[in-house]
Amino acid sequence: MKTAVVVFPGSNCDRDVQRAVSETLKSPVEMVWHEERSFASEPDLVILPGGFSYGDYLRSGAMAARSPIIEAVRRHAESGKRLLGICNGFQVLTETRLLPGALLANTSTTFICRKCWMRVEQTNNRFTSGLKKGSIVQYPIAHHEGLFFLPKDELAELEKEGRVVFRYANPETKEAGEMFAPNGALNGIAGICNKEGNILGLMPHPERATFSHLNGGSDGGAFWLSIAQDFAERGA
């Protein structure tokens, strides 16, 4: 499985993702500058990493969503291949309308950097099919705008379609929902996918929970292995 990581001015998790994927999956990772208009290879997975693209001017992800590389990203996703947006990458996905909603300022109005826990809500997609539905995973968060928002009717439709993939949770009781969201995200939503299941956006960072000696947890490693397993089973 070939992976490409898009690098924007202000990205700060691009190398973290590159190392997490390359060392976990033993597969090549192409680093793609935002001014490119195509990928050198034909990646199976494209990742929009975390960070502060363009310094978060205007809105988080707004300027990155208009970078030259985005048309290639869009073509990649529309062909049915995997597209993952992490933190700022999730914000870019909503700005491009590849995923619905918006990421608003945390209710605390402060930057939050800490461990958090999520419940795996569904596994019928190209990313979490190898994880156990209802299980609890720990990935850190590091953001100022992580409150997932959708108008009431659209939020209800998202829930009805079963497109919430991760929800903030209590690691002890496995309860999940808004009360456990450190940022105030509606319905405690931490990650969603598109209808086809090949585009995933999530605020927490699996790449920061890949090597246990760095973070004290390795749940992120299982996430990357889940993607690779799904790729191997589907053959695409």
Question: Would you mind describing this structure in some detail?
Answer:
This protein has 236 residues and is of the alpha/beta class. It has six helices and eleven strands. Strands 2-1-3-4-11-10-9-6-7 form a nine-stranded mixed beta sheet, sandwiched between helices. A two-stranded antiparallel ribbon has the order 5-8. The longest helix is centred in the last third of the chain and has 16 residues, at 219-234. The chain is globular.
Quick overview:
It is built from six helices and eleven strands.
Topology:
Blueprint: E1 3-7, H1 14-25, E2 29-33, E3 45-48, H2 70-78, E4 82-86, H3 88-95, E5 102-104, E6 112-120, E7 136-143, E8 147-149, H4 152-160, E9 164-168, E10 189-193, E11 199-202, H5 212-215, H6 219-234
Parallel strand pairs: 1-2, 1-3, 3-4, 4-11
Antiparallel strand pairs: 5-8, 6-7, 6-9, 9-10, 10-11
Helix pairs in contact: 1-6
Task: Give the key terms.
236 residues; alpha/beta; Rossmann fold; nine-stranded mixed sheet
